[in-house]
Amino acid sequence: MTAQPACDGPASNAQASVPTRPHVLIVEDQQINRDVITRQLGHLGCSVELADDGIQACVAVMRAHFDLVFMDCQMPRVDGFQATRSIREHEKSHELRRTPIVALSASLLGQERDRCLAAGMDDVLSKPAPMAQLRSVIERWTGFAAALAKDAPLRPNSSEQVLDMAALSALRALRRPGRPNLVIDLIADYLHSTPARIEQLGAELGGSGTSRGDLAHGLKSISASLGAIELAQTLGRIEAAQRGGGNAQLAAEAAPLREQYARACAALEKILQAERQIEAGSA
Length: 283
Description:
Elements: E1 23-27, H1 31-43, E2 47-51, H2 54-63, E3 68-72, H3 80-93, E4 101-105, H4 110-119, E5 123-126, H5 131-142, H6 165-172, H7 182-205, H8 214-225, H9 229-244, H10 247-254, H11 257-282
Parallel strand pairs: 1-2, 1-3, 3-4, 4-5
Helix pairs in contact: 1-7, 2-3, 7-8, 7-11, 8-9, 9-10, 9-11
């Protein structure tokens, strides 16, 4: 049985005082994506709370006031569509103000956008989201003016042909004095956590597992966050083929996966070593 969000409770999200900055809820099940958008929103002056899935999102919205909710669409237990419908029902039954909910989607195709809006979301944002788009969404839906810092300059690197260096540059721009190096943390986590997931996906593609495309979807979004765009695009095509394509299409889309993943990991390893050398030199 599918888990149901727990949004039946007292009306407790009334705003108690005039805030000085937007209070934002991030609903995202992928750790790397959570880390990136949390740092981005902090950079834009937001206070942030986190939820791992739709059930936690419903509980959080019932418990506290949020100026804005960023809602991932594909999550375990309860996805973003079901969570949003439950939140809207809760608001209606308790006569509460409508909390703006912005979908975080790896696909901005018309059908996906229409599905988000039909579920009760107010807007749709691609992920990984550029800082300028995040700022625009915050200002549009909360009325707060977000202070966007300039991106750090690109660092020349031989990995540019494999990685989108602009994505890594945007992550570097989020660093603050005395805080851990986000690029090091995210790349290290990616290199540690994704090999087993790639192997699992390979087993599914080889016929020894079953999937609705969830694994490919998660790998796609975290790969894109670190600039592995070619790999992310391949994973997106695999996801689409798993959800609705035939075996021939799936085999064709999956053919370059392992080679592209190996190239992305090798490029990220070079970035990681370079970042660590910079850290050691500045210590």
